[in-house]
Structures are given as C-alpha cells and as structure tokens.
Amino acid sequence: MTPSHAYLPGLTPRHPDGCFDAIRQTVVRGMTVQELAATPAFNLGKTWIETGFYWEAHEVLEPIWLILPNASSDRYFIQSMIQTANALLKQRMGRGAAARRIVGLARAALVSAHPVKSWGIDSAWVEDQLEKVH
Description:
This protein is an all-alpha fold. The chain has helices at about 20-25, 35, 40-50, 55-65, 75-90, 95-115, 125-130. Helix 4 runs antiparallel to helix 5 and helix 5 runs antiparallel to helix 6 (about 95-115).
C-alpha cells in the first residue's frame, strides 16, 4: 500500500481519519521484536521513510514504539526512526533549523539503541536517512 500523497502539515490535505488503522493494528502488545519487525507497520514505516512519506511513516511506526519497554534498545531504535521521519518532514516543509535539531535527537536515540540487530536493519540505515538532512 502506498499513500495517495505525502501529507505536509499546512501544505497538503490530511489523510482521512483512520486510513492507517489496519496497518497500525498489525502491532499487538506482547509481540516479540522479531514479530514486530515482520509487521506491515514496521516494514511500511521503513519503506515510507525511504520513499518520502515521512508523516505516514511516523503514523505506522508509533504503535511499535508505544508497546516497547521504556529505555530499551529496541524502543530507542524505533524512536530514532520516527525522529528521522520527522526531521525529513521538517526539511521538506522548509524548516531547516527544526530538521537539524531533530537530527540531533535521532542520533542521540540511536546511540542509546546500541547494539540493535533484531530489526533487519541497523544504525547505518538510519544514519543514511539522516544524511539527507542538510
């Protein structure tokens, strides 16, 4: 599933309420990290970051972040992905200073996430995405 358009707050129409609910509901409390990494929520979140659907990626990754244990490496890793999406969104919206500030937050979360190896991607993937912010 690819969204009909990338939502840019204040610039493009917002997606209808609930349009990502089916994807978000693939995340169920009690799933292992390996199970979470196989969900459409995680895989579409990653793909949407790569393809410029930053707000949408945040929407589907957030349920994963919410159920992971506080201060866990895995939660910090998902947080770094969400903040990466947010930084790229802010850059696209012409808010460069905000984007650069959020890059710092994403990198701090990534440092707290080490070592993380169970998502099928690692910190290098996140860093590659963060390098797109100038």
